[in-house]
Amino acid sequence: MSARTLGRFDRLLIGCERALEAVGGTPTAQRPSPATGITEADFDDSERRHAAGLMRINHTGEVCAQALYLGQAALARDTDNRQHLLHAAAEETDHLAWCAERLQQLDSRPSLLNPLWYAGSYVIGAAAALAGDALSLGFVVETERQVEAHLADHLEQLPAADERSRAVLTQMQSDEIRHAQAAQQRGGIDLPFPLPQLMHASSMVMKTVAYRL
Question: For the whole model, what pTM was predicted?
Fold first, then answer.
C-alpha cells in the first residue's frame, strides 16, 4: 500500500498537535541533552532564580522558533524549502525539550504567556512565507543571527558554576549558526529596513517579560 500524500487539512491537524506540544506538552528530544552527565552545581537562591530566568527566556524562544518555522512551512511555495523548514523545526524541538528539562532541574517553570508567544510567532512566520520563499528564508537567517547573539549574551550572564545550562546553550548556539547558514545557502535574502530592527525590538519585549513570567 502506497503512503497517502498529506493534504492541507492533514498538515493543519499536525500543526495543531505540534502547537499543543510546544506550549503545554512534554516535547521529546531526538538527541540527548548536552547537560547529560554534568554534575549539578550548588546555587544560592539568587543564582538559581537568575539561571532559571535565562533558561525560561530560551525556552520561550524555542516555542517561538517552533511557531515561526511551522508557520513558514505551512505556506512555503517550494516543497524542498518546506521540508528544510520542517527539518529545522525538528532540531528546534530538541532545544525546546532541553530547555524544559533544565527548567525542571532548576525548580522553575516555562513562561505563562507561551500560548501568546506561539500564536504571534506563527502569524509572523506565515506572513513571511506569503511574501515568498526568498524573503521567508531571509527571515530565518536574520532570526537565527539574532538568536545566536542573545545566546552569546546569556552564556556570559549565567552563574559561573552553571555548566549544565552552559552546555545546553552552547549546543543551541552551534545549531542556530548552522540553520542560518543553511537558509542563506538556499537563497535567503537580507531583510529590508526596518524588519531586522522590529524583530530585535519585539525580541527584547519577549525577553523582558519571559524572564519574570
Answer: 0.91
